[in-house]
Amino acid sequence: VQLQASGGGLVQVGDSLRLSCAASEGTFSSYTVAWFRQAPGKEREFVGTVARGHTYYDDSVKGRFTFSRDNAKNSVYLQMNNLKPEDTAIYYCGAGWPIISEMRRTSGYRYWGQGTQVTVSS
Questions:
Q1: Residue 25 CB neighbour total at 10 angstroms
Q2: Could you say which of 26, 40, 80, 99 is the most buried, measured as most Cβ atoms within 10 Å of its Cβ?
Q3: How far apart are CA 115 and CA 8, in angstroms?
């Protein structure tokens, strides 16, 4: 499956952005899709996902970011509110079939989009 992430941009502290990740194939609903992000000089880190009816977020984004998906449109979204400078990163969507212990690890996802840059200026 091919993933296309979009919606990034340059915003100010406290602003909002909505990222989208569109998949190329019709079996999208069978995948767990997650958002990760990678800041310069850092490893790719988990942001959030919905899997098996449960929503998972990194503590750093809880209460500010909301993950959603629309299987009919083969898409997932990440609504990001109250953005902070530390949210600056390239945001990636990944798709796969991770077990619970792999949910927050890049190794749990087989397919990746190209990423979209989010820059939060203070």
A1: 13
A2: 80
A3: 9
State the Cα–Cα distance between residues 104 and 11, nearest whole angstrom.
27
Are 15 and 75 spatial neighbours (Cβ–Cβ below 8 Å)? Answer: no
Phi, psi of 18 (to 5 degrees): -125, 115
What are the tokens at 2?
């091919």
Nearest partner of 83 among 9, 22, 3, 13, judged by Cα: 13
For the segment 103-120, what is each residue's pLDDT rounded down to a tens digit?
Answer: 999 999 999 999 999 999
State the pLDDT at residue 54: 87
* Residue that the structure tokens 């990440």 belong to: 78
Are 95 and 27 spatial neighbours (Cβ–Cβ below 8 Å)? no
Query: Per the structure block, which two tokens stand in for 20?
Result: 């989208």
Helix (H, G, I), strand (E, B) or coil at 18: strand
